[in-house]
User: What shape does this take?
Amino acid sequence: MLIGAHVSIAGGIENAISNAHALGCETFQIFTKNQNQWREKEYSQAEVERFKSDLNASKMWSNTISAHDSYLINLCANDPDILSRSRDAFLNEIKRCTSLGIPYLIFHPGAHLGNGEEWGISGISESLLWALERSQDSNVVLVLETTAGQGSHLGYRLEHLKRIIDNIHEKQRIGICVDTCHIFAAGYDLRDPVSYEKTITQIDQVIGLNYIKAFHLNDSKRELGSRVDRHENIGEGQIGDLAFRLLINDERFTKHPGILEIPGGDMAYKNGISKLFGFRDHQLS
Assistant: This one.
């Protein structure tokens, strides 16, 4: 597995590459705009070309980098105005990824806000079909992230993701990101070889391993099945080291991106990346 982290774009989108390099990343994830604002970011052609040029000149695995969409987006919002803003913002996320050459857009499926899971799954599917219809010129893969299941958030059961994927006709444009903290909090164990293999087998049987495009590598502050999303540094939470050692050496996920989203800033990222490299049995080439 390729090892990387979520990095800042402060001061310019191209800074993501130097920031990732400084942390020792092989791959990375970014926000393409402020994740807590509706206000959109438009990049100039010069900024786009600089980002692409610097990425091509780097030692990053450019075909594995990802963007994460804004936290404000809810693709099954029950308020028509919020749904409209969410769809427009999501489409703009796709457009920015397309222009920057970012292959994966990772996003939380959505929160049904009391309308029920069936309603939410239907709404998310409709929003994705809406966005796909309006981005026919793009190859960006829309990557559903597994969630912990806090509140009314969907995606904490593999079956939620399968049903959404089943509703998408352009299968080459859809995938999943497995967040280790989230699936653990949702009740899928990873802590020993038997539990790990059981969870991976479930993903394969319900969704299919071919749909996995990326991993978020996060330990969990809270216990198995807590449905509480609280990330922890690798090996310092309830999941422990062994799960990550098993995952990054799993030959089924060779050259899949594994992205850290842990607390503690750059020093924690450096330490986490170094630790994960120490877990890896073989170097990649």
Remarks:
- The chain is about 40% helix and 15% strand.
- The longest helix spans residues 80-100.
- The mean pLDDT is 96.
